[in-house]
Amino acid sequence: MNLERLLWTKNVRPSDGTWAYMNFNIGQLFKLGWKATANKKDYFNADQLERNDLILLRQHGYVSHLVKVLNRQAEYDDLTGDFIFYRIVEIVWKIDNIIPPSENYKADKIFDFPEVLHFMGGNAMKLQDLPTFQEAWNHRGGISAFQSHVESKLELI
């Protein structure tokens, strides 16, 4: 699988402590949500991703999904609740529904640096813009080396 568009990670943390998006399977689509804020900062974050970009979703210290962005821009959902900005994504890979997941899918193992566990909040983070990502991966070949590493860890080859 070609992961050259794997440029993002996003921490997902449902308020009820459950695991998000686990009821969807590979190939299925869902609305990946961003919390709304008064200054609409999160809308602009959701809108930064481009169509076909890939995002590693993390939750509870694990990588839970690899998703592909399908729509061209963030959309607004007028439903009640915290998450009203969203991107339509397709699941490319996901962990098994066994909770807790295998230790192989711990975020610090998939990313191969422990600082990833400190990437909190619900906004998408562009990997190449994160200083700790640069420190961990620039001397090993940068983003393309990371993408190959993730491909082998998720057994996407």
The number of domains is 1
Count of DSSP-assigned helices = 4
- What CATH calls the topology is ph1033 like fold
Oligomer: single chain
CATH class category:
Alpha Beta
**SSE ordering:** EEHEEEEHEHH
Give the helix proportion (percent range). 10-25%
Average pLDDT metric: 89
First-residue to last-residue Cα separation = 6 Å
- Give the class from helix and strand content and strand pairing: alpha+beta
**Could you tell me the strand content as a percent range?**
25-35%
Uncertain regions spanning at least 5 consecutive residues: none
Shape, principal axes of CA atoms: globular
User: How is the biggest beta sheet arranged?
Assistant: 7 strands, mixed
CATH architecture: Roll
- Radius of gyration, in Å, reads 15 Å
DSSP strand count: 7
Describe this structure in words.
The chain has one domain: Roll (ph1033 like fold), CATH 3.10.590. By secondary structure, the chain is α+β, with helices and mostly antiparallel strands. It is built from four helices and seven strands. The chain is 20% helix and 28% strand. The mean pLDDT is 89. Strands 1, 2, 3, 4, 5, 6 and 7 form a seven-stranded mixed β-sheet that branches. The protein starts with 5 loop residues before the first strand and ends with a helix.
